[in-house]
Each structure stands twice: as structure tokens, then as C-alpha cells.
Amino acid sequence: MTNQSDMTNYLQTFVEGMISSGVEQAVISPGSRSTPLALLLHRQEKIETFIEVDERSAAFFALGLSKTSLKPVVLLCTSGTAAANYYPAICEANASHIPLIILTTDRPHELRQVGAPQAMDQFHLFQSHVKEFIEMAIPEGTKTMLDYAYWQGMRATDTACQIPKGPIHLNFPLREPLLPDLDRTLIIEKATEILVGKKQLSEEQLLECVDAWQEKKGVLVIGGSHTPKEAEVFIKLAETLNWPIISDPLANITSCGKTSPLIMNYADLFIQEVEMSQRPEVVVRFGMLPISKNTMFWLQSLDDATTIYFVDETGDWQDQLKQTQVAIQAEEQTFARAIIEKVKVKTVDSWCNQWIDWQLTTEQQLNELSDMNTLNETTASILVHKKMAENGQLFVSNSNAIRFLDRFSTAEANHYQLFGNRGINGIDGIVSTALGMCATNPERQNVLLIGDLAMYHDMNGLLLAKRYNLPLTIVLLNNNGGGIFSFLSQRQLEVADFEPIFGTPIDLDFSLVAQLYNAKYIKAESLEQLALLLDATQKQPKFQIIEVVGDRQENVQLYEKVVAGLKEKFGKNK
Amino acid sequence: MTNQSDMTNYLQTFVEGMISSGVEQAVISPGSRSTPLALLLHRQEKIETFIEVDERSAAFFALGLSKTSLKPVVLLCTSGTAAANYYPAICEANASHIPLIILTTDRPHELRQVGAPQAMDQFHLFQSHVKEFIEMAIPEGTKTMLDYAYWQGMRATDTACQIPKGPIHLNFPLREPLLPDLDRTLIIEKATEILVGKKQLSEEQLLECVDAWQEKKGVLVIGGSHTPKEAEVFIKLAETLNWPIISDPLANITSCGKTSPLIMNYADLFIQEVEMSQRPEVVVRFGMLPISKNTMFWLQSLDDATTIYFVDETGDWQDQLKQTQVAIQAEEQTFARAIIEKVKVKTVDSWCNQWIDWQLTTEQQLNELSDMNTLNETTASILVHKKMAENGQLFVSNSNAIRFLDRFSTAEANHYQLFGNRGINGIDGIVSTALGMCATNPERQNVLLIGDLAMYHDMNGLLLAKRYNLPLTIVLLNNNGGGIFSFLSQRQLEVADFEPIFGTPIDLDFSLVAQLYNAKYIKAESLEQLALLLDATQKQPKFQIIEVVGDRQENVQLYEKVVAGLKEKFGKNK
């Protein structure tokens, strides 16, 4: 039997180790085996704790906290299937490099492989989707074991935070009695300082890039998630080189508050439609490919006359086109700033001017469409983007929602930050991740743009909003089913095959969902009304669901109308 | 590029292989990469398909289908985090030996490790919680590859169904285009016959048991899940030996419609309270330990004078007490029947009479308590058990719900079947598993007994009831939080520690939940009203939520009152 005081000292020392490496928040799901860690985290003043019964939502909430705070966040649950519910969020955290510290509790060795209740094999439970799996020792109170506990807490947290960041799983075998000794206070004086270096190119390597890029016909392609501040650097880089810049919405190029004629935010719409008389000599990519399939097809169409550079600090080779000729493994921002300093001569205007023309022609085409002035899922998405306030936070769901933003949102003067789960692009856990974002900065404007299926998938997450009074505005694009499939090849199917498998209408009355979780509910009837509602979120944030009723066919028709108009204007196929 | 017709033939042949080994149902979650398999399953007349957007609920629903039909059930989803949502149900299926055939779809090799969207490492995704992981070949249309596809479908399904049964994971790399050729029909004449043998003891081994058991003071302890028909055999075995029988509720001893004075259904209440002047010479256990902790402590208190036999066909060593002296690895029913035939002499009545006395005294004590005549969570649970109709199906949730049944339900003349998820005892996925049970035999009376936290955890599952008109009656024991902890050591904590971490009130209005999913909602105000409502479910099954408002403290107080009364009556500590 483990001594109660020894167990308490051991676990508290472990917690102190995590704190030393930067842990400030923990999300706990109730359970029996996890009792001592839950109580010690709850009692620990330096750690803010959140409680959520559904472990799947709890894990995505932690993901959202860490995504926004940029700090490691702890997850704690009991033994058994509880931990398996963490899996989707862990896969996403691993792919998008978010440092989660997952603590699972377990039967001790003598209660394994014996049919003990709520016990299962938790070793390497999350397979290749965590950076490390650590089986902790049974708690003991010796100096050696307290040093070990501190070390693992400190070291594992730091490992999660090292580039490439990612989740770490620690499994704690705990013996009964499970109640810690809450009356005793162990004073732990330890704190470990960590000085972190950055991957940087040498002067020589930098000059090689500058020589290869300046004065060349180039295109900057920015994928992955970046902060608005980082986005500004990319725009500055584009301006320095005088190159057009194509980006993913999550790169925050169109939401960092800077406008520039070089920002090709309509690339998805025009890039496949225009006659490209001048092909680029250089393409410089940062991070993963942007979401736009048309941009991907265009990149794929480039031949060897174009040299493709790929910059990524993590060492991930994110290039499904396998075109990379020069891979630059260095911290992106430091690298971009160094290039900006060294470039002396801009590329001639004639190169970017054709791009600017395409962009303006597309803008004109959109302005001509009356559908862009009535309320639908596309215009609602554009409006959400436009109505984001200074330092606001917008979380955008996968599937259609992010594609509306990608295709139709332009760089405006408003400065805010866009977030999403684009590691594996699931529609699971979106509500909880957005609430994690909101919980990090609840005083700001916080908005979630989401479709009905993603909303349904993570409805349980709404309990967090209710419990912690999180003032999230949810703009719900409700087309009653899987809207994305109407854009894909599946739409060729007969209705009898399409509707049950891909359309999947769910017929839920979301005003009841709002009532269930104490959210305000409003159905937006017009763009003007939606604008007023969004204006209000800037001044007085509150937990509310604004429903925009959409139509799966209408979304496609609007898109096709835009493309048809562009075909006409650009006359590529004539 | 894979030829569309080759891909179709390959996948259809695979599906035919699964059908040959007994697949009749599939649960599909929508997605793009899984399109060809989804359409082929949907179009296949020999397979009934269900669609559910939330993969976690889909997997538990499949678990419920298979648990009730005793046949292998297919799960299909797209690539990425979708499959990770299956994990909790897979862990449960593996622990409770349910044959699920999990089909995940994946990017082909050339789109792996390249940052392709919605792609992640799906190899051995479910770690040690599946019997097998199979990476399928890229579809090809040669005879060799069609033979391979059929073989894997047939063989993998059979492997899932071999003892010990369990889930199997097949990962399909699929190339675009993803639409199969639905116009062509491949006639597959293959069918493979499988003759399955059973583990049986030899005549000599059987006689060794009979000699060791007959005329001895013995106790039968039945854990694990058994059908009512199997339960009858265990009762017959007890009668043949003239031994008391202690069982887990899921063994269906108290719900198989047979009454016998030998059934010790109140064992949890009295076994630690009575003065046991005669200790057993033999204990024969079937399956895992029953849920009762008191029974476990009593077993633990036995010394070497008692020989413990453990019968389990699966080869699992389910004995956390590590007392097993004789392990019998043979099919339980065949073994029990053979023993019944061979036993010639019963044990003397004096042995079982003391047990029957304890049982009757406990019954008397319960009858004296006025709380047993008013509506509370305990009495509601007893009433549900009593009101189950001929061939009805009752699913009981984990945590408190199953403990109420274990402690307080008696063997009555009503014959029905009780189900639960007792592999790992999670409170996740209960609603969906119960709906899978209901979907298998929707014409019968189908009831779910569940607490509010488990109901909340799997609320999404209710969409299946709405979509498929599943007439499940949900009896919701709502004590607004984690009632089980009020029975455990955690209740010693201060309220400020207990309520947020263990009490976890969720304050949900379940009438809104009912409205959201088109269920009828009734709050039961008295035992009489609840009786009438349950009577009605026998005649006219419908999808409804009957809420019983409970109180966490009241549950404990009632239990403590019972135990105090028994201490008085048995006077062990006097």
C-alpha cells in the first residue's frame, strides 16, 4: 500500500515540475482513479482548472486553450475508455503541433490483466499520435523518487513544447487509498530555467535565397496557422520582393489589418480561369498547402522552370505535390525578417500587375452579383469576417465554413485573429476548441463560424460555455446536412444514394439547443440584421447562437455563377 | 490511377467475403474517402445500413447491435480523426468480446507523410484494443487481387468471431476517383462454410470436477454477461449441487424468469454483515467477478480451506484476487450441462439453508423500510426490473444504475434480458449502445436505465432514435451529477473540493433534450405513475424519456439505513 503522504508528495512534486515548464491551466474530467491528481490540480493556486464530464469535449477545449495561449495545457482523466475519448483531439494536436500534457490514471501493476473493473491496456494508448508515452513509477516518497517526479513533470512538459510541439502522454498507476493528504503542504523550491534556441540559417545560406529570389517573377504561398503579427511579416516580405501573396485563411493575411494590392485573396476563384502568359520563376511556400484546391492544381501545373522553395521549422515535409526543390528548415519569422533586410531590388511591376488585374476583375465580378447582397451562407461568412473587431477572435469550422472565408473574404482594415483545426481538418470538437479560444481571452469579441453537422457533433461542448459563462457568439450556417458534398463528385449520385449517405439531414431545432445550454438564440433574417447582431458582439460579448438558414444547392449555384462569370470575363476557354 | 471498375469489383468482393462470414449490418459515418465502400454497403441488399454523423455514437450503436444479435457488425468511416472517435467503443468491444469489423479509409501511400489534408497515421490506430490490424492493398482488378479481397473480408470477419471474439481493424488506402461504378454488377458465387468446434473437457476432466464438487459446501459465483437461457442452466447447476448462487445482474440470473430460493440476489447487502459459521469448501466462478464489492471482499476473506474454480472459455484470467486454484478453459454452457448430468448426490440442505435465511432476513428488512414505497432512484430501478415484459430488453448504465439493480432486484417470474457495457464500465456511449439493442428487436419492449451524466455524455446518440424511429423508453435517474462518488471515499471531502470535481452538477432540462430529438417526455411523480408508464411500454413501445428526479444524498442515506438495519438483525458486531 502506498503511504497517503508519500503519494501526495510525489504527485505534488510532479505538478510543480509541470508548472516550472510553463503549465498554467488544466482540464479535468471526473473519475475515481484520478482523484489525487484532480484534487492537487484543483487546490494548486498557480493552475486554473476547468471541469468537463465528456472527455472528448474536454480534450478539444484544452486544445483551444493551448492554441490561443500558446502554452502547454494539462488534461486529466480516470482509467478506461475515458482516455480513449481524448483521441480525436490528440490526433489534431499532434498534427497541428499543440503541446497538450495528457495525464491518465491507471490500475497499479497488480491489478492489470486480472479483469479488474474499468481497467484496460493504457500503454501507448495514443499510438504514434503523441510525441512520447511515459509510464510513471508507482508513487514513493524518497528523495530519489520526488526528484524523479519533478523531473518528469518538468521534462515532459518541455518536450511537449519543443519544436515540433505536440502532445505527451503520461500514465500514472495509482494505488488505493486515492484521497491525498490535503492538509500537508510540501514546499518545493525547485524551478528549472530553460533557454531555447531557434533554427536559423547562416549568412551564406540567407544570401543564397536572396540571390535566387530578388528580381525574379515569384509568388509567395502561405499555408498553416500564423498570428496576425506573423502575417504582417509575410506581407512585408511580399512587398519587399514585389510578389503576389496567396494564403490560407488561417495564415491571418486577410485578417491582420494590413491591406495590400499584392494580397491575392480571390486566388481560389481566378487562378484556374486566367490565361497565365507569364509563369513564375520562383514559388516560396511557408507551411502546409493552403486550403484552396484550385491553388493546389495550379501549383501542380507548374513545370521545372519554376523553382519551389518550402520553409518549415518543424521539419515536416508538407508537400503532397512533391515539388519541393529547396527545403528551408528554419524558424519562419526570423528567416523572413532576415530576407526582408537583405533584399535590395524589387521584381518589376509588370509581374505583379497581371495578378492585381485578376484580383480586381474578380472583385468586380462579385460586386455585380445580386446574390452577394442577400443573406445566404456565403454572404453571412463574409459579413462575419468584416464585422470582427480589433483583437477579436474568430474560430472557423472545417468543411464548408472555412472555404467560404477562403474564397470570398478580402483583406480589410480590421485586425483580428482567425483560428481553426487544420491539422487533420475534422468536423469533430469544433465547439469545444472555439470555447477554449474564448476562455483564454473572454473579454474580447469571440465568434465561431460553424455548420450544422459540426455543431451537432460537438454539442456537448456547449456545457463548458454554460458552466464558465463563456461569451461566445456562434454563427450557425444551417443547411441541414453535409453541405460540402454538394461541391464534390458525390453530387453526381442519385438522390436515393446521396441524401442518406452524404446529405444526412439532421432536422434539429437549434433554438432548443440554445435553451438547453442557456444561450441566447436569434435567427438572422437579413444581412442587415446579421450586421447589427455582429456589431453588438463587439460591444457586449455574450453566449449566443445566431442561426443563418442556408441551402446546400444555393451555395453551389452561387459558386458556379461566380465561376461562370469569371470564365466569361477572362475568356480562357474561348 | 485505379480503374473505377477494378476498384468497384475489388471492394464489392471484399464485402461479399464479409457477408459469407455472417455480416448483415453496417453503421456508416459520412465522409469523402469512404465513398465507394459506403455506396456499396448501402446498395448491398444483404446488408442493413445505418447512418450516424457522430462516429463515437455510431461505434457504440454498432456495439449494441452486435451485442444483441450476436453477429459481427461493420463500422465504416472516412480518414482522419473520424476513426479516432471510434476508440472508446472499440476498447469496450475488445474487453467484452464483441466482434466489430472496423473499416477505415485512408490516403494511398503516395499521399502519406506529405501533409495531405485529413490524413494521419492510421496504422495500428487502435493499438492493443483490436485483435488484428490489416492494411489492405490498393484496389486492383486481377483475379489474384479479387481472391485476396474476398479472402480478407471472409477471414477477418471470421477472426473477429472466433473465441475470444473481438474487434478487427482494416484500413483501406483508396485513390481518386472515389465514385464506384454502380451500374455494373459483379456476380460473386463464392461462399465459404465454416464449421466451428467448441472447447470441451474430456470425460476424465469432467469427473474430476464432479468428484471435487458434489456433496461439498459450495457457492456458485456467476459474473459476465449471459443470456437468460444460459442463466437457466446456471440455476439448474446450482439446484443440482444444492448450492447458493451469487451473480452479476448482467448474468441474467434474476431476469431469466426462473425463481429459486438458491438465488442470493441480496448478497451485496448481507454477505459482509452475517456471521458465517460454515465457510465454503468450494467456490466455482464463471466469468469475471460480479459487480458487488462486498462479494469481492468476502471472496478475498476466504482462506486455503476453500478451493476456487474459475471457468472461462476465452482464456482470460479474470481474477483480480488471484485466488484461482483450478482454471477450466472450456465453453461454459456445454461444461455446465455436462456437470449437471454427472452429479449424483446433492449437498446437504443445512449448507444452503443458512444462505436462504440471510436472503429472507434481508428481504424482510427491505420490506420494513417505508422509503422502499416512495419514488426514489432505488425504487424506480427496482420497479423497472419488475415491469419488464416477456422477452423485453433492458439496458442498464454503469456507475449507480447497475448497482441499484444489483443490490435490490430479486428474481421474479418475469423473463427478459438485461444488457450493459461491463467490459470497461465506462459511462460513455450508453445511449447509443442501448439504441443498437433496440434496433435489433424494435418490436419488443426496450428500456434504458441511465443516470444524468451518462445521458449527457452520449446525448448525440439520440439522433439515431429520431432517424430510425427506435422505440426506446429511457428511464432517466437524474440526481444532477456524479451520484456514485457519494458512495465512495471522495464523499469525505469538503464541499468546495467535492462539488466541482465529483458532484459536477450539469443542470440540464431534459424535457428540452426530449423535444430536440422528438421523444415524448414525462416526469414521474410517484411510484404508481411510473408503474403505469412502464406498463404502457409493454403494450405500445415508443421513444420516450421518463425522468425520475433523484437526490445524491438520499441514495446514500437509504443504502446506509438498509445496512444499519441488517447490522441490527444479524448482530455480527455485537
How is this structure best described in words?
The structure is a homodimer of 574-residue chains. By secondary structure, chain A is of the alpha/beta class. Chain A folds into 3 domains: 4-173, Rossmann fold, CATH 3.40.50.970; 203-360, 3-Layer(aba) Sandwich (Rossmann fold); 369-566, Thiamin diphosphate (ThDP)-binding fold, Pyr/PP domains (Rossmann fold). The first copy, chain A, has 21 helices and 17 strands. In chain A, strands 2-1-3-4-6-5 form a 6-stranded parallel beta sheet, sandwiched between helices. A 6-stranded parallel beta sheet of chain A has the order 13-12-14-15-17-16, with helices on both faces. Chain A has a 5-stranded parallel beta sheet with strand order 8-7-9-10-11, covered by helices on one side. In chain A, helix 8 links the parallel strand 7 (218-222) and strand 8. In chain A, helix 1 crosses helix 2 (35-43) and helix 13 runs parallel beside helix 20. The termini of chain A are far apart. At the A-B interface, helix 2, helix 4, helix 5, helix 16 and helix 18 of A face helix 2, helix 4, helix 5, helix 16 and helix 18 of B. Chains A, B: It catalyses: isochorismate + 2-oxoglutarate + H(+) = 5-enolpyruvoyl-6-hydroxy-2-succinyl-cyclohex-3-ene-1-carboxylate + CO2. Chains A, B: Its cofactor is Mg(2+); Mn(2+); thiamine diphosphate. Chains A, B: Pathway: Quinol/quinone metabolism; 1,4-dihydroxy-2-naphthoate biosynthesis; 1,4-dihydroxy-2-naphthoate from chorismate: step 2/7; Quinol/quinone metabolism; menaquinone biosynthesis. Chains A, B: Residues 12-124 form the Thiamine pyrophosphate enzyme N-terminal TPP-binding domain. Chains A, B: This is 2-succinyl-5-enolpyruvyl-6-hydroxy-3-cyclohexene-1-carboxylate synthase.
